[in-house]
Amino acid sequence: MNTIPLRTGLVALMALALTACIIEREHVLAPDTQGLVVDGDTLAPVQGAQVRFEALNGSLASVADEEGRFFLDGHSEMRRVMPMVGGVHRDASRVQASANGYETGYSSAAFINGLGPAQAEYPVIIMLVRQGADEPDLAGLMADCLETPEQRHAVHIAARLAELDPQGLPAWLDTEAALGLEEHISIVLRSSLLLDCEQTQAAHETLQGKLTAFRAIAGIGG
After folding, report:
1. Which domain of life is it from (predicted)?
2. Cβ–Cβ < 8 Å for 40, 129
3. I want to staple 162 with a disulfide (CB 3.0 to 4.6 A). Which of 50, 68, 93, 210 is the partner?
4. Model confidence over 93-147: pLDDT tens digits?
5. Does the pTM of the predicted model rise above 0.90?
6. Alpha-carbon span 181 to 173, nearest angstrom
7. Quick one: which of 126, 129, 160, 158 has its CA closest to 142?
């Protein structure tokens, strides 16, 4: 008995059934985002900073106002997916800012993807590092495994946050802003990155020490 035609027919039927199950779903590339650009040293607003979503090439930049505040419109697109693929999940879009006298700064706009247009869960705080700023001790421990400007920026920010005076925190550093900053650093300086450092243990302990200090200063758990 020749089973090849039968098998071919079954494959064709399965392919047809799968095709019929494909649906269109709105995928969010970036959420509606609002936040603040500040000088990483003085924590003062940086007026005129150009802010944009890193992944949206050609998107218009938002210009930070006199209080350093900005707003970015989100963007989504329709994608054809299987019903069991690409469900609701936590996501983050990278935001970057540039201003004269500073290195490019970065942060993350966290949101829930899969439910249509989204808003960032936390206000996005971008702390800019002045050009020529001294490297923190953590940068030395991770010198052989830092690969991108974004990672180097996160190292500077982690070190700066751990040095904040709990008695003189800026008004913008509330619980939501603190959680957003912590999440961004954890995303960029992920554990797998530290495994590539020659001084893995020292780098890990130093980073965790700085994040622990920041949590205590900002009054957040975790």
Report:
1. Bacteria
2. yes
3. 210
4. 999 999 999 999 999 999 988 777 889 999 999 999 999 999 999 999 999 999 9
5. no
6. 10
7. 158
Under CATH, domain 23-132 is a member of which superfamily?
Answer: Carboxypeptidase-like, regulatory domain (2.60.40.1120)
**What tokens were used for 150?**
């974004």
d(CA 27, CA 36): 26
Calculate mean pLDDT across residues 32-46.
Answer: 97
What length is written for the chain? 222
What pLDDT score was predicted for residue 21?
64
- Torsion over CA of 129, 130, 132 and 135, rounded to 10 degrees? -30
Pairwise CA distance, residues 173 & 215, whole Å: 12
Question: Whole-angstrom Cα distance, residue 211 to residue 107?
Answer: 16
Residue environment code for 90-99, b if the CB has 16+ CB neighbours within 10 A, otherwise e: ebbbbbbbbb
